[in-house]
């Protein structure tokens, strides 16, 4: 007898957390996608158990999502959640076949991520050095760390005090699927860390004492705060439409590659599982290489 859908959803949630090592944010997104598809199946086909649906029903859901104006990228993400669930049901022998086994993802146009220029980075750093109060120093360290290490926003938020080694000049971050990596720190960043630790120590009523980055109320910072910090300062130095922590990560990789860094080394610093993910950042480097080639070649 098939267990109830709620029990299967709970088992799936545990599978994602414990076996796949997904973050709680990702697990919540997967479950939300499943619940919305379940509502669709109930409303349109009177099927409450989504393990009983066929591909025709799933396809009608995909069409409904596209018709609602959702981007192909978002539709693909939702379908991916469903596909992972069916793989799980197959794994625990609750179904005999995955209805999405032969599904092909919708085409997605490649969006070009434009990195910040080195001049824009320098201009922001000058603005930050004018501020020496707690939030000013903290914001400086946030931007310096993101740009000098290429870490993700979620990784930065979860850095703990004991992840920073002043003596070893390194920082330990916990990446996707709980994968740890050690990243070297530049001397200038170490100086900012020491300054930040001094002003951090002057905070009253620190609640989340284990974490490196805190708000002035003494609690751990959150991802939206990091986004606001990046957007605030780079709006003063850049006219680019997108100003986010990810663009700083993109800038880190692009600038390293422009300076001749080995792509395999950049891959390790970024915490990518495959080189294909890192190669996205080579496009700007190739453009610069073409420009140098055009200007320098004697037959030009």
Topology readout:
Blueprint lengths: L4 H15 L4 H22 L9 H13 L4 H20 L26 H11 L5 H16 L3 H5 L6 E2 L4 E5 L5 E5 L2 H14 L22 H12 L10 H14 L4 H8 L4 H5 L2 H15 L4
Antiparallel strand pairs: 1-2, 2-3
Helix pairs in contact: 1-2, 2-4, 6-8, 6-10, 10-13
Number of domains: 2
Strand order of the largest sheet: 1-2-3
Order of helices and strands: HHHHHHHEEEHHHHHH
Main sheet summary: 3 strands, antiparallel
SSE class: mainly alpha
CATH architecture of the largest domain: Orthogonal Bundle
- What is the number of beta strands? 3
Question: Ends: how far apart?
Answer: 75 Å
Q: Which overall shape is indicated by the principal axes computed on the Cα atoms?
A: globular
- Helical fraction: 55-70%
Number of helices: 13
Assembly level: single chain
Question: Approximately how much beta-strand content do the residues carry?
Answer: under 5%
* CATH topology tier name of the largest domain: hpI Integrase, Chain A
Spans of at least 5 consecutive residues with low confidence: none
